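Submission sheet (multi-component)
Chains listed below:
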Amino acid sequence: MTGVVERPQAKPQAKPQAGPQSRTGGPAARRRLVVIGNGMAGARAVEEILARGGAEQFSITMFGDEPYGNYNRIMLSHVLSGEESDADIFLNALSWYRENNITLHAGVRVDRIDRFTKYVYSDDGRATPYDVLIIATGSRSHLPPMDGLYTPGGSIKPGVFGFRTIDDTRKMVQHAQQEHHRRVVVIGGGLLGLEAAYGLQSHGIEVEVVHSGGHLMSAQMGPDGGAVLRRSVEALGIRVHTGSRTTAVLGTDRVSGVSLRDKPDIACDMVVVAAGIRPNVDVAVLSGLPVERAIVVDDRLRVQDEEDIYAVGECVQHRGEVYGLVAPLWEQAVVLANHVTGADTSSAYLGSRTATKLKVAGVEVASMGLHGPELDTDEHIVFSEPSRGVFKSIVVRDNKMVGATLLGDSRKVAYLTQAYDRGLPLPEERIGLMFDLGTPGEDVGVAELDDDAQVCNCNGVSKKALVDVVKDGCNTVGGAMDATRAGKGCGSCKLLVKQVVEWAADGAVEEDPAASYYVPGIPLDKPSLMAAIRKQGLRSVSQVFTALAPGSAEDAKSKMGLASLLKMMLADQYIDERDARFINDRVHANIQRDGTFSVVPQMKGGVTSVQQLRRIADVAEKHNVPMIKLTGGQRIDLLGIPKEDLPQVWADLDMPSGYAYGKSFRTVKTCVGQDFCRYGTGDSTKLGIDIESRFQGIESPAKLKLAVSGCPRNCAESLVKDVGVVAVEGGRWEIYVGGAAGAHIRKGDLLATVDNPEAVKLLTGRFMQYYRERANWLERTYAFVPRVGIEHLRAVIVEDSEDLAESLDAAMQASVDDYVDPWSERDDQLTPGQFRTSLPLTVLPQVPVR
Ligand SMILES: Cc1cc2nc3c(=O)[nH]c(=O)nc-3n(C[C@H](O)[C@H](O)[C@H](O)COP(=O)(O)OP(=O)(O)OC[C@H]3O[C@@H](n4cnc5c(N)ncnc54)[C@H](O)[C@@H]3O)c2cc1C
Ligand code: SF4
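Outcome: structure written.
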């Protein structure tokens, strides 16, 4: 973890004394700037001050009562869900404080300010003088009154948590991961509550949200949007109770449930309270500063009636408003820095029009202004598509946009935010506000964005900041993101960031070096990575990290790609490490929306028998399988199997895995072919079965779906497969590669026409091995084939122009020889928890034949 500073030993209360920071003299007679609060606003204000030459004017001291450097609080949700480690969310490492000569007292709380002698007193007994003081103490979780929240000793009952700090987050993760903890109730269905619910669900415990409002995120949207959001949240398996108030936390020494006002109790072993925040104003109140709902400041961010004390962030009340999001504090920090440094003494903060744009529980949400019409003359344009979780609502008054809510699709958010902020002319056809009809296209949209339009809300990055970085010579999207932090929060603005950088670079965007890395955590492209693995004899994912990652750091996002690559390269020499696998690969089944799995037994070439069908039917009956479905790849899919039942289902089936999961070779679809079809010219069924038998289970950078058709009528849809084979006149076979008919549609390119099925198998294997060795991680053949070019592929694979054929064939043979049916693991489980249910299951419908 980055940024921990030892908390100093408590000392007796010191007398105010002039030390090294003497008011008179001192190094270059710089004024002393003291900041209370080392959170997002405090640190940002200091960054803005430094950017205005503040280092020459001030010696800076910061106090933060959390024992860490400054971190991105927004990212705590990602830490809770395990998507980020806490080390990754620090905004300013300790070295940043050192490099900027900032004295940081981390883990030290300021208790009192003496405005007359100009000292702050902290709980380590220190008295620190200031010339200019900034208060940035933020907020804390609000714990609404409830019976049983505290133990008789006055501390919070074990199992009850707020959600505000790194420490809160770590404790929640720890608690959630304890084996016997199965159920959590989150109190509050706003942004924070939903983030907590989403994060905790990923630890495999059952989550229920209790929200007192009539609908979710009631502060940001109206009931219709709330209903669509609820549907999306419930689809994740999170149960929601709206219009419900929690009256008590049950349990004597630890949580055993909660009581609701009008509904039955809910049993649980963990309660997260996300029912709002309260500004931290104790130190201001104790020191006699003006506090109403929060510390009262003027348009310069100066505390009312104080010459040298400023306040910024969530602890601030400005013109009656208190803000609970980061965007306003970015604006405040700029104005404050202009005044503190004298860079622009005319600068004024006039309040923020909060447009929220974030990802909540994986759902994109944008909201600004009114949620619905208020006057009879207000126009209300609504588009709702609940099944896709999409909802859009726009309120227009006097031809100006006065509010919008976007759920599940926020592509128009930049344009709408600007229309809302600046009263842009609206298209006559209002539908154009929601979709790209009649409104500026994306390029025009980016060009028209004002310089100060906020592109990344989470990190407060404007269009101008991005454009400036590009003007200063940074021509890669990743570089601009690194330099400004744009796109490094909830991630919902990444597309817009890319568009702005491309527009600013005027076509001169360079490829990111990182874009060529095979996996993000190792700075090597695929050929170099493979060469290094071979040279150093590396055999496991952890060995690769140790040898090749910067600082030997493990990177979770790289593990799957590396595991697949090593398996492909090393076959039985590969050392398998379980944590390098994705859930599908860990349990050899496809995870479904409700947390159950689907089981697809092998059915080579789509051909089955009475015995197989009977066995599948018996198993489906015995295990109460809620849905039996034929897949697009000619298999029978048993859907809705709980994780713990997988080994038994496999045992009962006693058939090999059909590889419906994972990044690997999956199926060969075949047509009826020669034996039965009137048109068939080749035995497509036999060839399909032969190909499937040969290549079953081999790893690849992305899934591989194949097909064989018995004549050019192409009933197996061979032209839109990764490898598709078609029998043509004269006993010949055409082999197509790089086809697709999913999210992307592409007709495959003709690789070769050959005379016999053996040649088909050989070239299919050689192409697949070349693809396995050369393609990027997750790059499907429909992207790979046009990238390297079909002529090149023909030359290498068919004509052997690079003298590679022998080694490609040998490498493929080694993988083929290494095949073991993964379902045999049922008898020899690798870890005790391998098949334990880890996700809450939603009740899905039992699907009869419709
Ligand atoms: C889990 C989570 C998710 C969020 N997600 C979003 C989001 O997606 N979008 C968004 O816009 N906003 C989000 N927010 C809100 C955002 O984090 C806050 O608006 C922002 O952090 C406020 O900054 P601040 O500096 O005012 O307060 P803080 O970041 O809380 O910093 C205040 C600091 O001062 C310290 N402090 C308090 N009193 C004292 C004292 N007396 N002496 C010394 N130190 C003291 C506190 O310990 C704290 O470290 C989220 C918040 C949380 C908790
Ligand atoms: S592709 Fe040709 S051989 Fe195969 S089923 Fe269709 S018509 Fe018959």
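Remark: The longest strand covers residues 390-397.
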